[in-house]
Design goal:
The chain is α+β, with helices and mostly antiparallel strands and 357 residues long. The protein has helices at 3-30, 36-44, 47-71, 78-100, 113-167, 171-187, 189-208, 217-232, 259-269, 311-323, 348-354; strands spanning 215-216, 241-246, 253-254, 279-285, 289-297, 328-335, 338-346. The protein folds into two domains: 46-153, no CATH class; 168-354, Histidine kinase-like ATPase, C-terminal domain (Heat Shock Protein 90), CATH 3.30.565.10. Helix 3 (47-71) packs antiparallel against helix 4 and helix 7 runs antiparallel to helix 8 (217-232).
Length: 357
């Protein structure tokens, strides 16, 4: 919890305590002939009164808040805590009594031991009440800080996992692409050089442009174009992949390698499907919304069952939750050996502009 918030909590507590004491004095003045304002002024201007009303509370509150909580409760030593707590409230009640006995600070009380004992008991109870409240406040602040720390650690862990997911390249894709380029070198050197440059651009993109939180959408689409071009080398069927982009990327920004993750997944599971329209990819760009559609066919048999779920999809959804909270919609359908991913992301800047904010 921020230091400024903690200070406000403490100031608020003591202001409320002062108001409570003032209310009690005003209520007592209502039953007497004295003016409430006069009673308040005279009461708070006398040092002995301040000693009685505030010193036991201050000592008890911060004794429990600072020392007892850190020294005993954090170590889960309840016996030590209760023993130290009892000693603390006894001392907190005794110190004001001793101060009131000093000449010049005496407050019109009978100095007989019974009267002093009664005052000590009252001040000890007052110190106990303040101590318990201080303990509760410290416990609340510590509980809040622990929750925030856990959330921060959870977010850092998620960001680390997402960074690994974002930066990974399917090793099978890399291996197959290099082999395909190697074959082309002997038959069509010009084409092989073109594909080699595309692979180089992909690697450069992953090394440098994925380090930022957002990149222009057109750069992500360029990456997808090159990735698909390299994937097409592996298939002789001209309609194995159907890919279309509608609309103008304009100033759209997107988290890097967000869409390609679903495309990589589609190629992974469509390997056994060799006919046309094995993979269908559509990107529709509107001023207010980005729509992504990815469909892949797959075949299963009794001994093998394709599973599109797992850590990758879970992390991708968490990534969307982290980057586009409340402005995205993800629908995944797996039916009749067809796997479909539909992702819609609202343009938050466009929405804010048209709402007048």
């Amino acid at each position: 919890m921020k230091r400024s918030v903690i200070i406000i909590l403490h100031l608020g507590y003591w202001i409320m305590y002062i108001l409570l004491i003032s209310s009690l004095l005003v209520a007592l003045a209502a039953n007497s002939k004295f003016d409430p304002a006069t009673i308040l002024r005279q009461t708070f201007s006398q040092p002995p009164v301040l000693v009685v009303f505030f010193l036991p509370g201050l000592l008890g509150f911060y004794g429990f808040y600072s020392y007892l909580f850190q020294r005993w409760l954090t170590k889960q030593d309840l016996k030590g805590f209760f023993a130290a707590g009892l000693a603390t409230v006894v001392i907190c009640g005794l110190i004001p009594v001793l101060l009131l006995s000093i000449p010049g600070l005496q407050w019109q009380v009978n100095r007989q031991w019974k009267a002093m004992l009664s005052i000590w008991v009252v001040l000890t109870i007052l110190a106990t009440i303040h101590g318990v409240i201080g303990l509760v406040m410290k416990g609340f602040i510590t509980w809040y800080d622990e929750i925030k720390l856990k959330e921060d650690l959870k977010k850092k862990n998620l960001e680390t996992e997402l960074a690994l997911l974002k930066s990974q390249l399917n090793p099978h894709f890399l291996f197959n692409t290099i082999n395909n380029i190697d074959v082309l070198i002997g038959t069509d050197a010009t084409r092989a050089s073109l594909y080699l440059n595309k692979l180089s651009d992909i690697l450069r993109f992953m090394l440098y442009e994925t380090q930022t939180e957002q990149i222009p959408l057109r750069r992500e689409l360029e990456y997808i174009d090159k990735y698909l071009a390299l994937q097409k080398i592996r298939s002789a069927h001209p309609d194995y992949i159907r890919y279309s982009v509608e609309g103008d990327p304009g100033n759209w920004l997107i988290s890097p390698m967000l869409l390609i993750s679903y495309i990589e997944n589609a190629f992974k599971h469509a390997e056994s499907f060799k006919s046309g329209n094995a993979i269908i990819i559509r990107v529709v760009i509107l001023p207010e919304r980005l729509y992504f559609y990815c469909e892949n066919k797959y075949r299963t048999n009794k001994t093998e069952k394709k599973d599109h779920s797992g850590l990758g999809n879970e992390l991708l959804r968490k990534r969307l939750d982290l980057l586009y909270p409340g402005i995205y919609r993800l629908t995944i359908t797996d039916k009749d050996e067809t796997y479909i991913v539909e992702l819609s992301i609202e343009n938050d800047e466009h929405r804010l502009h048209h709402s007048g904010r």
